[in-house]
Each structure stands twice: as C-alpha cells, then as structure tokens.
Amino acid sequence: MQAKPIHSPSPYITPPLLRPPPVHQASLSSQTITKPKPVSVPIPNTDVVVPGRILQPVKPFIEPDDSIAASWDYNFLFMSQRSETTQPIRLRVVEGAIPTDFPSGAYYLTGPGIFKDDHGSTVHPLDGHGYLRAFSFDNATKEVKYMAKYIKTEAQVEEYDRKTDSWRFTHRGPFSVLKGGKKIGNTKVMKNVANTSVLMWGKKLLCMWEGGNPYEIESGTLDTIGKFNMTDGCDSKDHGENHGDEFWEVAANLLKPILYGIFKMPPKRLLSHYKLDSSRNRLLTVSCNAEDMLLPRSNFTFTEYDSNFKLVEKQEFKIPDHMMIHDWAFTDTHYIVFANRIKLDILGSMEAVCGASPMISALTVNPSKSTSPIYLLPRFPNKPESKKRDWRIPLEIPSQLWLLHVGNAFEVKHAHGNLDIQILASACSYQWFNFRKLFGYNWQTRHLDPSIMNVKGENALPHLVQVSIKLDSDYTCQECDVKPIHKWKKSADFPAINPSFSGKQNRYLYSATTLGSRKSLPSFPFDTVVKFDLANNSVQTWTAGNRRFVGEPIFVPKGEDEDDGYLLVVEYATSMQRCCLVVLNPKEIGTKKALVARLEIPMHLNFPLGFHGFWAAS
Fold this sequence. Notes:
Elements: H1 67-76, E1 89-90, E2 92-96, E3 105-110, E4 131-138, E5 143-150, H2 154-159, E6 160-161, E7 166-167, E8 197-201, E9 204-208, E10 215-217, E11 224-227, E12 237-238, H3 246-262, E13 268-270, E14 275-277, E15 282-289, E16 298-305, E17 311-319, E18 323-324, E19 329-330, E20 334-338, E21 340-344, H4 346-353, E22 363-365, E23 372-378, E24 395-397, E25 402-413, E26 419-428, E27 463-471, E28 477-484, E29 492-496, E30 508-513, E31 528-533, E32 538-543, E33 548-550, E34 554-557, E35 565-573, E36 578-584, E37 595-600, E38 612-617
Parallel strand pairs: 12-17
Antiparallel strand pairs: 1-5, 2-37, 3-4, 3-38, 4-5, 6-7, 8-9, 9-10, 10-11, 13-15, 14-15, 15-16, 16-17, 18-21, 19-20, 20-23, 21-22, 23-24, 25-26, 26-27, 27-28, 29-30, 30-31, 31-32, 33-35, 34-35, 35-36, 36-37
C-alpha cells in the first residue's frame, strides 16, 4: 500500500533561475524563468575495458553546449525537497528486474534536504538540514520500498514551524550567510544538521555530522530518537607531550569559554567519517578539540567499539600542526592522518564576525610547503613495533595534496620486518580548494555556480590517488610517493570498496567519475561509475547517459569473492526531472549487462544530491 506523503504548499522547489540575476535584484518572483524542455534521450553505455593498460575510450557523443541548460541541470541536484513520507512507498522498476539473489537489507543515504527558507535566505549545501532516505530490499517479495524524513535535530526543530509548515533559517552554520536573518551578533554557528554520513552499528542507526554528536534514528520509521553521545566516556590514553606547548595551552583555555559558552560549540568535534575494521569487527571513530581549529596544534581522540557498541580502545594524540581533516585511514597497526594544513585568515575573520561572510572564512588553506605531511599513529602503542619510530615526525609526500575521501588502506608485512602501506583515496589541489566557494555557493545570487567545480588544470579538482609508503624493519621511511590510480586523471571522488575487505588488501576499487562529454560540465557532476582492477591494471566504466548524473556508489556484498555482489548508486536524470536508484553488477561493468535494474522515485519525492550512504544487511 502506498503512503500519502506529507505535502507542504510547495513540496517540490524548482531549481533556481537559469540566468544569474543582477546583484541588486532581491527576489526571483519578478523574473521570467525559462526551463529547458525535457528531452527523451537514449541511455548510452560508454565502455572502457582495457586489461594491462589504459586506452582512451571511444570518444563519447559531445552534445552542443548549452550553458543555460547546464546551470539548470547543476542546480537541479540541489533543489529543496520539503515533503516526507509517512509510510514506505513501493518503487516501480522501470528497467531490468531485482535479482533473485539480491540480499535483504536497507540502503540508507543522507545529505541536505532544504537550501532555501521562506524569508530570503539560502544556505550552503553543507549547512542544509539532514534528509535521510531509506531503500528497503525484501528478498522474498523482490520489492524495494522507499522512505524519507528530515532528521529532527535541535536546529531543524527551531527553524521549521510545523503549524505554518514554513521554514526560517536562524542558524548561520559554518558555511552560510543568512540574507533574511540576523547577521551581526548571530552566534548560532555550530548548526548540527546530521547530513554527512549514516551508519548502522550495534543495532543503532546514526546520522553523523562534522562538528558534534550523531543523531540516533529509529530504523523502521526513520523517526529521530535524539542525540547519541560518542564524545564522552572513559579516559583516553594520552600519547602527547607538551614540548613547550604551554603558550598554546593558555590560548586554548582563553578560547574555551568563548567557543563553548558564546558559540555553543561542543568541546569535541566528532568527524563524520568512521571506519569499519572487518577483521576485528570494530567501529573506529575520531574526534578533535573545538579550539584546535584556531590553534597551531591538533588533538585527535581515536575510539574503537565492538559489535555491541562497547568501547574497547580510546587514545589521544597531540600533534604540533595546524590542520583540518575530513577523512582518515587505518591499517592493522596504524591510524593514518593526512595533514591538510590551514591557517587563520585575519581579514576573513573580521568579515565573518561582522556577518559579511561565512564563519569558515576565518580559516584558509596553508600552501606554504610544497610537501604534504602524513602522520602514522600507533594503533596499539604497547606493541614493540609501535615504539620503533617517533610518530610525531610526519612522513612527507613530495607534492601538495588536500585529501578528501579514503577508499581503503592496508599494510603488507614482509618476513624480514619491512612494512608496505597502501592508501587509496581522492584528493585535490590546495589552489582549488576554497572553503567559501565549495559547490559554487553564493548567498547573494541564491543559486550555485557550477564553474568552480569545473575549472581547468591537471590534478586541481578531486581525483583518485594511490599513496605508497615503504618502511624498513626499523620503521624508517624508505619511500613515500603518490600517483594517480592507473593513470586515471579524470575528476573523480567517493572511492568505495567491498566493505568486507575494509582494512585488508583489496583488488577492486569503485568510484564516481566523469568522462567529460558535457562541455559546460566536464568535471562535475559525475555521470559514470568506474571500476579499477588493481591486480591486472584494468579499468571499466558504466555511464548513466546524457544529462544523467550519479552520486556515491555503495557495494552490497553477496558471496565470498571480492566483486561478488551489487553496486547501488542514485541517478539524477535532469532531462526527465526524476531520481532513480540503479542496481549494477560489478562483474559486468564495462559490458552491456552492467545495468541490472533501475527503480524510479515518484516525481513529487525527488530529492537533492546525497552525500554518503550505508548498506545494512538484514
């Protein structure tokens, strides 16, 4: 039985205007909006199957450039969706069929749901309220049911008026400027929107954000239970030393009353990216101190939980470096931190305090060094090998990299004691990464400019890299190098693997990428899923088609083989104004049999681009 969604007066918000308005125009109501006509297009599958080496694929069809349509397509991915579901809705299969061996379980996807309020403000995608989507697969009935609800965070409850069914943004958030709200003196900066990642662990469904505790969700109804405390608990093992750090301790103590009291920041910032140790069946998380964002030192607290969510390991590391990390890695013996170096921006800080720019303007990247530091932190410090090298001294990659996401990391220990570490990740350049301009956000024009995500320049935009570290038997670094994975230099992000191989040596890597067929949108949004075979150096791709884009691929394990399972990826068909869930066969990527099924979300429930997802087997 299909549920009736909860409708607001405008459940589906058409993407912003196609032509950027003059800055002095305050609203969209007085302008004529011309949408490109939806077109019916075939769904090509551009294959790249190259054992041993990479060849250029058959040149895809290059459509006539239409910058207006490109802007409309781009902003379609960030349209607001105000509707929620009250009951699961059965999705219609429009192509293929659900495989008979597809396991029962649920695919959860989180990301922002709303970007514009009813009072003139537009927020950055990273500040959009978390909108949780759930796709439930039933192996017995071969049905897929869909649900979606907003995560009822403290900020969401304050900014959404249930009586009038309207929104008024009151929290600035780290990345936004409120046009219709208070600017100067607005200390509501830490807007926990729980929109970044989702996790099912110890029978708890958690939606996570980059700056606070996650929110627990009831998996059957998607109702919000409340905050789940993961930053307090037993004392950690402190592996840091002061080394003349007294001055910064004094500075930290002066900052704490301001950050904790006036700006209501939690003392610990839990990172939204977690890790699953498939060998030990553990959940790994990391948090850092709130004041470290403003100081040239970093405190990282790593925690490990067993399958019942019992805390089994907790330790803290003090690193004398001013850095920001979004993702990280682990191996059997190490936590691995890529130090994305940052510094205070004095002018940006003044603009942020005055409300003229986002609060994140107080920070900027620090490209003063030509290398990129990597810290190898001992995961089990009591083991003898952990004492062989001073973890406070970073390894240096001989090039600048701003690390974005990690697909996997693993180590290989040789008989003579040498240790090889491999990290598969996505990264971009310091020159491209800009806190204020991510996704092309502009609070004044109230639309997103896709040009920032499509700049020219090799290795500027997010791309896939393989970092190789070789340590001798004394754990002295013999080599630390980085290179593109299989020389794949196209823009790519969201690297993923079979989660059963997390922390182990893996053969296959999947990612969202682009083939560059869209002249106005050559690099982002992504339109292709790529599969790398790291053993025989082959690359295969599946492409969604013309004016169709994809998000993060998620692997659903089925058997013992590493690529025995299915890939799930959300497809955004802008030409049809529809969202679809696509099921791919990983073994067939690069052939006409790759697409197994395509399921259509009802048009009135179209949703924005999601960030990160999770597969929870029943």
